[in-house]
Design brief:
Strand order of the largest sheet: 3-2-1-4-5-7-6
Mean pLDDT: 91
Low-confidence stretches: 1-11
Order of helices and strands: HHHEHEHEEHEHEE
Strand content: 15-25%
Largest sheet: 7 strands, mixed
Number of helices: 7
Distance between the termini: 47 Å
Structural class: alpha/beta
Oligomer: single chain
Length: about 220
């Protein structure tokens, strides 16, 4: 029975340890993209990310961690910036690659575990986390932060857009400002420059979206 359970887990999660969100729901991330759009897929880049692009904030090699079907990656890459989008959901990546071909945009989409980013074998000057950090619990966050550190050098910039705790029913994993500051403190090799109130759009909120934090963090 134990062996059968392990085989099933390997099939569902590709041999990796399921995240706390996957354990809570009993569904792997890839399943969210099968048979319909995932709740967080809105068919266009998040406004907060589009604003960054308009301000030319993405420089050097860019990593989009938890890229989903690639809307944010594609917007950044459309400016000629080298971008790698990673996700564990292979169905989402297939969709992202199709979008890239249809739009004629040069961008890479790779299957990779956010807890083992060193397997990419390269460094990034800018990292985007749009809706990934808030899926991890307090036990998982140190591993994720260390993984980000392994693919960035001092001076690199990390942008995080995540559900905030500023209002009820913001999302399944609201984040406090203190959570961000604790995860990305100097001891972990990071410095939180700013955390500002923002909005994140989803398919289960109204047109105004949900309260979010937008954090700018640098590698030290």
């Amino acid at each position: 029975m134990a062996e059968q359970s392990k085989t099933l887990a390997d099939d569902l999660f590709g041999g990796r340890r399921p995240t706390s969100h996957e354990q809570m729901t009993g569904v792997c991330w890839d399943a969210s993209y099968v048979g319909g759009s995932a709740p967080w897929e809105i068919g266009r880049p998040q406004p907060a990310i589009a604003r960054l692009v308009s301000q030319s904030k993405f420089t050097g090699a860019v990593l989009d961690a938890g890229c989903g079907t690639g809307e944010n990656s594609l917007l950044v890459a459309s400016l000629g910036v080298p971008v790698i989008g990673i996700d564990v959901a292979e169905t989402a990546l297939t969709m992202a690659r199709q979008k890239a071909r249809e739009r004629g945009i040069q961008v890479e989409f790779e299957v990779a575990d956010a807890f083992h980013l060193d397997c990419l074998g390269c460094k990034f000057q800018t990292v985007l986390d749009c809706g990934l950090f808030h899926t991890f619990n307090s036990e998982e966050r140190p591993g994720y932060v260390a993984s980000l550190a392994s693919v960035t050098d001092p001076g690199a910039t990390l942008y995080i857009l995540c559900f905030s705790d500023e209002a009820p029913k913001t999302g399944p994993h609201p984040v406090r400002q203190e959570d961000l500051r604790a995860a990305f403190d100097s001891g972990s090799g990071w410095n939180v420059i700013s955390i500002k109130a923002d909005r994140v759009l989803t398919r289960f909120h109204d047109d105004n979206g949900a309260p979010a934090w937008f954090a700018t963090i640098t590698r030290i």
